[in-house]
Amino acid sequence: MTRLDVTPAGTALVTGVSRRAGIGYAVARRLLDRGDRVVVHSWSPHDAGQPWGADDVDAVVAALGSPPHLPADLGDPDAPAALVAAARAAAGPLTTLVVNHARSALGRLEEVTADELDRSFAVNARAAVLLTRAFAAQYEPAAGPGSVVLFTSGQHRGPMPGEIPYALSKGAVQQVTATLADAVAGRGITVNCVNPGPTDTGWAGPAVDEQVAAAMARGRWNTPEEAAAVVAWLTGPDARSVTGATIDAEGGFRR
């Protein structure tokens, strides 16, 4: 007897899977564990220039069971379409796109530069739209229900005066979510945005760690696995009526 609640395995592209402590890794792990075929993307040169440093990407991919791995600089305007095409070639028609990657950038108003604004917007906002366009173009309904999950960082909930390039570009992702959802709704694709709140991915120092933990209702940071659980729901059978939404999964963060 066939169970009606069983959904065929999907095929997902997850961007920003470069660190075992990161949300992208947790998302890829969660989707793999439920039986999806997963292609992972990374761009380690960005991490190498950040205070937290780069992980060993080969070890990251190996820890996931060695799914197809495609490095790409999504600041290149041609990279999103090429990445989606390569992912499809590696795993078949894609049913899920998780746009998790991000360019981190500090800068107060008096410090911000046009170059950094452009770079952050290209990687965070422009790439999100171009990835969604390429995903929708290759999507085949027969392969399974389609879903896109974008990521923002709470810019719509409060200011981030020390990270203007990042706040601008990630805020744009949140703002365009409803528009992208409308553009592909007739194709059977949902588009939603996740705000995971303060998530412990190893980037914060002791002072910030304590400050944020004190502002959390549960007295601790959110975990990458909790963000991954929200993504799994949005890309699973129980969230098909949810599209164009921003899910604030902040764990009771008190700003």
In which range does the helix fraction lie? Answer: 40-55%
| 3D shape | globular
The count of DSSP E runs of length 2 or more, i.e. the number of strands, is: 7
As laid out across the biggest beta sheet, the strand order is: 3-2-1-4-5-6-7
Terminal CA distance: 51 Å
List the total number of helices.
8
Q: The biggest beta sheet, please? A: 7 strands, parallel
**Poorly predicted ranges:** 1-6
| Mean pLDDT across every amino acid position | 94
Strand content: 5-15%
Order of helices and strands: EHEHHEHEHEHEHHE
Structural class assignment:
alpha/beta
Give me the Rg, rounded: 17 Å
Please, could you describe this protein's structure?
- By secondary structure, this protein is α/β, with parallel strands linked by helices.
- 40% of the residues lie in helices and 13% in strands.
- The protein is built from eight helices and seven strands.
- It has a seven-stranded parallel β-sheet with strand order 3-2-1-4-5-6-7, with helices on both faces.
- Helix 6 (164-184) links the parallel strand 5 (146-151) and strand 6 (189-195).
- Helix 4 (79-91) runs parallel beside helix 5.
- It is globular, with a radius of gyration of 17 Å.
- The model is unreliable at 1-6 (pLDDT under 50).
